[in-house]
Amino acid sequence: MRGYAPSGTEPPMKTLLRRYTELPYVIDYLCTEEIALLNPASWDDRNDSFYMEEYARRSGAGSVYALCLAECTETYHHWRVFSHGSGGACIQFKRDAFLKAISAVKDLRSGTVRYKTIQELRRARPLLEELPFLKRSAFSNEHEFRLFYSLETAGPPIHRIPMPRKCVDRIILSPWLPNKVADQVKATLKSIPGCSTIKVYRSTLVANEEWKKFANA
User: Fold this and answer.
1) Among 13, 25, 1, which Cα is nearest to 189's?
2) Residue 135: inside a domain
3) Residue 188 domain flag
4) Rg of the chain's alpha carbons, rounded to an integer?
5) For residue range 111-132, what is the model confidence (pLDDT) as tens digits?
6) What is the dihedral of CA 188, 192, 194, 197, to 10 degrees?
């Protein structure tokens, strides 16, 4: 079932999708033009990964893979939870180009995650097809857009899908990365073949000079 998009709270951003990750995965993507979907077994949110495992068990799938993106603008929460530390990074994709690219991938499902309370599930249990796109309401500030893929047999630890570099709006480096180090990282990323024109910035979320100026008398 392709393009499954559960209904839910309207996300605050419609033109971009953000993939919060770490620099090794950014380099891997820029070199291969492929994004890696991971097995959710190691996810910190065990409720979420359990629903994935239950989907696999009930549907007879041998392995499942997922990729999480954010449909909202930059937040401290996303950096701290998903890309904490100086090695964190964010790949900001052009939404329309991203969706066009994944539409060509057979059997890949995608959609906005729906957030529900336990009380809501007591009133109406989720359908099997909903499980990969359902999370507890406490996580609703993530505004997650998810890719989901399953195989009938046991597969490798990751599943790759093509994603042209032209889908990238920019690469954003960690706000905790020192400026001088960020300059070297920017130069290194741009030196990757085909990446010279990609915009690379360091986030100023936790230290923005313009913001500070407004406190001056």
Assistant:
1) 25
2) yes
3) no
4) 18
5) 999 999 999 999 999 999 999 9
6) 0
